[in-house]
Amino acid sequence: MGGGYHVGAVDHQPVRRHLAFHNNISRYLFSISRDGLIWKELCKTHPTNGTPHNASHLHSVILLLLLAGMGSAELDPMVHIFAIGSAVATLCILILQLGVSAAVVLFFRRVATDDSRFQVFWAPLLSMICMTLTIILVVNNLQSLSGSDSRVVKMIPWFIAACALAGYGMSLKRGMKVAVIKK
Length: 183
Known about the structure:
It is a single chain. By secondary structure, this protein is mainly alpha-helical. The chain folds into 2 domains: 1-75; 76-183. It contains 6 helices and no strands. The chain crosses the membrane at residues 81-108, 120-143, 155-172. This is Amino acid permease. It comes from Klebsiella pneumoniae. Keywords: Membrane, Transmembrane, Transmembrane helix.
């Protein structure tokens, strides 16, 4: 029942995932550029549709260079680029969610609110604890999750930590201030 449709839908899901990853990465490049941490041209949007087209083009070029390099080294892009890239993306998203939970707790310590203590402290704190445990599980099982036991996969957490420290250092150097929202 509906087998032909289901097979066709399943075949297109990787394309949708790849486009979603591409869109997310382009928007992160746009945001980082807007904050002045990388080349300013990347934060310009398309005049007609408002998309971060410069960031998208750069991401496309980087991906094509990676694919060409992998192809010339006779490596499978799905095994090497996508598996490792997915591991990096997954771990970064989990760390970002941990940071958002921490930001909620810190924000509502500074700003008075009528929201319940559960909403502004306990739920985000519980989220932080769960995210921390999830990150520990992911890091400890990264080789299984990525399908590779290469040294590159083992270095992913250290690479992410180095990038986070470099980004934080760049923001300090640029004198970026924490935004303060007043009621």
